[in-house]
Amino acid sequence: MAASPPPNPAGGDPGGGEEPVSLEDLYHINVVPSELFLKFRKEAQGFRLGLNLEFYNFQGNEFEAKLVLKPMAPDRRWKFVYEPIHGDIRVLSKKIPITKYLNLQVGVGHNYHLNAIGWKWKLSTCLGGDGVSQIRNKTSIGLFPGFDLRIGWKAEYILPEIHGSVGTGEPIFNMSYGRLHASIDRVEAILTHES
């Protein structure tokens, strides 16, 4: 399917008020993920040890490996992450809810290639966009015990709207059809071994 034109943040048609040529002009759905993760997990004595193999940008064959250790308790407050390729060791807090849709995560780390210590913070939300509404989410599917698929997806949309005016030279009745751009960004295959 050919790429659709980017959504118009104003909510109108990009063609200057003309009706869309076809239904394909109103939506674009990309089902080829840009990231593929293979996660191997071992659970024992209240902790989960994981090995993550992360593949990005299939044209460039970018690869990253992570070793992750975290407690399995529902109120877990931290996780330990080691990235041998980049030489990073980090301890990260869990995502701390600030509001219903806004989370804060902080961490401290050491890079032994650069011999540097520092800290990071990140504000994240499932909503966002500049003039375009956006939803980002992850959906988990348990295929059988010990094997799960987690799919990270994103949808950017402009809702349809009906508008009009009187005495301004614009139509009395007009409709913007809206737009939908959806994509699968990440697929994670998770293998878990419980003791």
Task: Itemize the secondary structure elements and their pairings.
Elements: E1 27-30, E2 35-44, E3 47-56, E4 62-71, E5 78-83, E6 88-93, E7 96-97, E8 102-111, E9 116-125, E10 127-128, E11 133-144, E12 147-158, E13 161-163, E14 174-176, E15 179-194
Parallel strand pairs: 1-15, 2-15
Antiparallel strand pairs: 2-3, 3-4, 4-5, 5-6, 6-8, 7-8, 8-9, 10-11, 11-12, 12-15, 13-14
Pfam family, one: DUF7781
Domain DUF7781: 22-193
Protein name: DUF7781 domain-containing protein
Architecture overview:
Residues 22-193 form the DUF7781 domain. InterPro entries: DUF7781. It comes from Colocasia esculenta (Wild taro). This protein is mostly beta strands. It has a domain at 1-35 and 127-195. It contains no helices and 15 strands. The strands form 2 sheets. Strands 1, 2, 3, 4, 5, 6, 7, 8, 9, 10, 11, 12 and 15 form a 13-stranded mixed sheet that branches. Strands 13-14 form a two-stranded antiparallel sheet.
